[in-house]
Amino acid sequence: MTAVPDDERARAKQAFFDAVPGDAQAVERSRKLWQIAYDDDGQNTEAAAYLGASTVLAAAHARWPWDKGNLAKQGMALLDRAVAEQPENLEVRFLRGMTNYRLPGFLGRTKLATEDLQIVAGRAQAAADSGDLPRPLAAAALYHYGLLLEGRGDRAAAAASFREAGEVGPDTPGGRAAAGRLAAAAAESP
């Protein structure tokens, strides 16, 4: 089993996170880099997870519905395999949770997204403090899990999740979004 060198892994991760906002070129760059890592070592769970997540993102940019469906299925299968191999890996769970979170409800992945984000959110603070989960991912998991709780009408639990996101990563996109959500809720309160 060949490990992906740290500099290549960092470059591939950066390409993935550049792709998340919807940049089609970044999506393809991420897929290519993670495909190389996966082809080099098909047993690398991290490579499978990032390739799967990149492939799901690519589905959004596919021109034809059948291509969208095929890419989404391929990506979901890689993500499911990665979580099955390493269910305690919070980064892998985060990737599956967030990519499933963004999928249309008719694909039936909402419950899985909620479960993954709940698991990551429940361990985010400790994992970020120990260095097992990057702070931006921990804060993003807490923020998005808070949105899911808010959508279910559990405002108190959502607010707690938003507060924790701000504590875990105050200078991260998830932490800033959570702070904005808390400020908006405070402005609405009598």
Provide a descriptive summary of the structure in words:
The protein is 78% helix and 0% strand. The protein contains 9 helices and no strands. It is globular, with a radius of gyration of 17 Å.
Topology:
Blueprint: H1 6-19, H2 24-40, H3 45-61, H4 65-85, H5 90-101, H6 110-130, H7 135-151, H8 155-168, H9 173-188
Helix pairs in contact: 1-2, 2-3, 3-4, 3-5, 4-5, 5-6, 6-7, 6-8, 7-8, 7-9, 8-9
User: What is the CA-atom radius of gyration, in angstroms?
Assistant: 17 Å
Strand content range: under 5%
Low-confidence stretches: none
Helix content range of the residues, please? over 70%
InterPro entries: TPR-like_helical_dom_sf, TPR_rpt
Keywords: TPR repeat
Region (Disordered): 164-190
TPR repeats: 139-172
Précis, in short:
The protein is an all-alpha fold and 190 residues long.
List keywords for this structure.
single chain, 190 residues, mainly alpha, 2 domains, 9 helices, 78% helix, TPR repeat, TPR_rpt, TPR-like_helical_dom_sf
